[in-house]
Design a protein that fits this description.
The chain is 58% helix and 8% strand. With 310 residues, it is mainly alpha-helical. The protein has a two-stranded antiparallel sheet with strand order 1-2. Helix 14 (245-253) runs parallel beside helix 16.
């Protein structure tokens, strides 16, 4: 029975954990009672053929006592990204003993988890990094170290090169909190199928810095009237790799997507006061671009250049 249940879990996306947790609890009637339910005692105490894997069901129980016992019973690594993320969520549980049990399990079995499973989970967890408020630094470091493992990052890079839809830029930007992916950025800027990924990577490479959002902040729209708006709080750091800026600027300026060409045009516009000799050819090419937003940036560039030279 539990084996069938686990095979069903393997078909669920990791971002479904929060919703699925409530549905599993409802369907399985895993509710809090004065004493642990018969199902909880039966499985957690090991008196059932499925007891070895029962923790994958009972970690969703409404009783923190049973969730803790269920996690302590787990005896094999996650078989799917859903199971991996479910344990991460238990490390953010509102019951301290459950968090400890989940951490103990993760410490033992996350290093043994298939990197493909971890990479699939990473596509969700990189975006969730700022939303897990209850876990402590040990848990955060453990999960981070697992997500940034070399084998996991190689799989993640291959995915980012091929994917064409979904929240891929949020994944890449979140992953750039650490420099582990910096060496992949030139290849992503050249060869990713997604224009959004190429644009993000080109922006990092050409500006020699990584940016990511860390929460939100309020900025004034009209301070006199008390009008403000909520915007992402952007953090940044210098890249840990150096590249041939001229080569990557030329590649960006010739990219098939206007989204990437705008990155080159914007950088030129910002550097109008200190142009390099090779800027001229790229600027002239972008001046003839078929995209209005690119042309507008170049009109700004040439107008400022003319003012600076007069």
């Amino acid at each position: 029975m539990i084996e069938v249940y686990r095979s069903v879990l393997s078909d669920l996306q990791p971002d479904a954990v929060a919703q699925a947790s409530a549905e599993i609890r409802q369907i399985g009637r895993l509710y809090t009672e004065t004493r642990p339910s018969l199902l909880g005692r039966f499985l957690v105490n090991g008196d059932h053929p499925d007891a070895e894997h029962s923790g994958w069901l009972l970690q969703f129980h409404a009783s923190g006592y049973i969730r803790e016992k269920a996690l302590l019973k787990l005896s094999d690594p996650p078989r799917s990204a859903f199971e991996f993320v479910a344990v991460v969520y238990r490390m953010n549980d509102w019951v301290a003993q459950v968090r400890e049990a989940a951490f103990a399990y993760a410490q033992r079995f996350f290093p043994l988890t298939d990197p493909k499973i971890v990479a699939t989970a990473a596509l969700f967890l990189f975006r969730q990094a700022g939303h897990l408020a209850r876990w402590d630094r040990r848990a955060a470091r453990l999960v981070e170290g697992t997500l940034y493992h070399d084998k996991v990052l190689e799989i993640l890079k291959a995915h980012l090169l091929e994917v064409t839809d979904g929240p891929v830029v949020r994944v890449l930007r979140s992953a750039l909190r650490r420099p582990d992916l910096d060496s992949f950025l030139p290849e992503l800027a050249r060869n990713a199928k997604s224009a959004a990924i190429r644009s993000c990577a080109a922006d990092a490479v050409l500006n020699q810095r990584a940016r990511w959002a860390e929460g939100y902040k309020r900025v004034w729209v009209n301070k006199a009237y008390g009008v403000s708006r909520r915007v992402p709080n952007l953090k940044h750091r210098p890249l840990s790799v150096t590249v041939n800026i001229r080569k990557h600027m030329e590649l960006a300026a010739q990219d098939r997507s206007a989204q990437v060409r705008r990155v080159a045009a914007s950088l030129l516009s910002e550097q109008y006061a200190k142009p390099l000799p090779w800027h001229a050819n790229i600027a002239e090419r972008l001046r003839q671009d078929r995209n209005l937003s690119v042309v507008t940036r170049m009109e700004f560039y040439f107008r400022k250049r003319a003012g600076a030279e007069s």
